[in-house]
Design brief:
Strand content: 15-25%
CATH class of the largest domain: Alpha Beta
Protein name: phosphomevalonate kinase
GO biological process, one term: isopentenyl diphosphate biosynthetic process, mevalonate pathway
Bound molecules: (3R)-3-hydroxy-3-methyl-5-(phosphonooxy)pentanoic acid, magnesium ion
InterPro entries: GHMP_kinase_C_dom, GHMP_kinase_C_sf, GHMP_kinase_N_dom, Phosphomevalonate_kinase, Pmev_kinase_bact, Ribosomal_Su5_D2-typ_SF, Ribsml_uS5_D2-typ_fold_subgr
EC number: 2.7.4.2
Distance between the termini: 21 Å
Radius of gyration: 20 Å
Pathway: Isoprenoid biosynthesis; isopentenyl diphosphate biosynthesis via mevalonate pathway; isopentenyl diphosphate from (R)-mevalonate: step 2/3
Structural class: alpha+beta
């Protein structure tokens, strides 16, 4: 029996810009997890608490994982396939069958509520980690990230893969995104072992800590949002010249702000980190106005105002349009006051902390 887990994530800064190759974001892994259990069995099976009544069987034909019926587990089977391709290239036999059992704490199962903590990233990372362990390979964070990114790219997933970096490394990461165009080409002409051994263009993942005395506080707006739709909405606008200019300007300003954020974490400089959150919020507001997309909804704006009124800094997290906002607090008293103010307007403080590093 093998067990592995992967944490959820929240963007602290740099969302949207990070979708562009090589642009930075700061992302935190949070201590709410997705768990994967693998057990060797006669017939391959997949089961997840995300679809409690669904049991899918699988087998292999010519080293290809083949599910017995159409199913919503494409991310899981793609992750299985990538790890099997990788270990086979290392000379490991992949002949046994196993049952994959997924349990997620990232969403509220009872009510079906989605908090936007990144369950698709976590399921990919969790399955990759569990299968590496099943095949007796070390689950080194960078290897886990790379295999997870390949699993997602093979099935045409969009986005920066920043969630995969946070979930693979744990803690807080400064993430510069991989150049997807380069990666797609590299996938065509390199073997999986060469691909994994290469430096990836644009990519860097570095662990960070927040300056001492700053703590993460997370508020949930009560409504779920679709990252894919929001990112597609942004990309759809880029055909127009004037929107392209807005985007270019956003990218330049964002990079500067994120570099200051990252340096300030290294220098343990609390005030500059606070300033970077304020600046990045403003940049996202200007960007969304210029692009005609809604990132900071009225409820997210309320969340930020109530935090600011207590002297903290706050912003929307990730694609926005709902989901969560983040706030950095510097005293227990401040935290308590913000929590109370949020609750009065229906914002749910989530009991989350930053997850430990791998
Ligand atoms: O809403 P989230 O937490 O899934 O974050 C999305 C972040 C984006 O930069 C908007 C998209 C991406 O893939 O990086
Ligand atoms: Mg979101």
């Amino acid at each position: 029996m093998i067990e592995a887990s992967a944490p959820g994530k929240l963007y602290l800064a740099g969302e949207y810009a990070v979708v562009e190759a090589g642009y930075p974001a700061v992302i935190a892994a949070v201590d709410q997890h997705l768990f994967v259990r693998l057990e060797q069995v006669e017939t391959g099976k997949i089961h997840s608490t995300q679809h409690p009544d669904l049991f899918v069987t699988w087998t292999r034909h010519d080293h290809h994982i083949c599910p017995g019926a159409t199913n919503p587990y494409q991310l899981i089977t793609s992750s299985m396939q990538v790890v099997e391709d990788y270990v086979r290239a290392l000379g490991v036999d992949t002949e046994t069958f196993y049952q994959v059992e997924i349990r997620s704490d990232l969403d509220d199962e009872q009510s079906g509520t989605k908090y936007g903590l990144g369950s698709s990233g976590a399921v990919t990372v969790g399955v990759v980690k569990a299968l590496l362990a099943y095949y007796k390979q070390a689950a080194v964070p960078l290897l886990v990230y790379k295999l997870s990114a390949l699993a997602q790219l093979r099935i045409g997933a969009s986005g920066s893969f920043g969630d995969l970096a946070a979930s693979s490394f744990g803690g807080i990461v400064a993430y510069h995104s991989v150049d997807r165009t380069w990666l797609k080409e590299a996938m065509e002409c390199l073997t999986i072992l060469e691909l994994v051994a290469q430096d990836w263009q644009g990519l860097s993942i570095e662990s960070l800590d927040l300056p001492e005395g700053l703590e993460l506080l997370v508020g949930w707006t009560g409504s779920a949002a679709s990252t894919d739709q929001l990112v597609a909405g942004m990309q759809g606008q880029l055909q127009q010249e004037e929107k392209e200019a807005v985007h270019r300007q956003f990218l330049t300003a964002n990079r500067l702000c994120l570099e200051q954020f990252i340096q300030a974490c290294k220098a343990n400089d609390r005030e500059t980190v606070r300033e970077a959150i304020r600046t990045n919020r403003q940049q996202l507001q200007d960007f969304s106005a210029g692009m005609g997309i809604v990132i900071e909804t009225p409820q997210l704006a309320r969340l930020c105002q109530l935090a600011l009124a207590q002297g903290a800094v706050a912003k929307s997290s990730g694609a926005g349009g709902g989901d969560c906002g983040i706030c950095l607090v510097d005293s227990p008293k401040q935290k308590e006051k913000i929590t109370k103010a949020w609750e009065e307007v229906g914002i749910v403080p989530l009991p989350l902390s930053i997850a430990y590093r791998e």
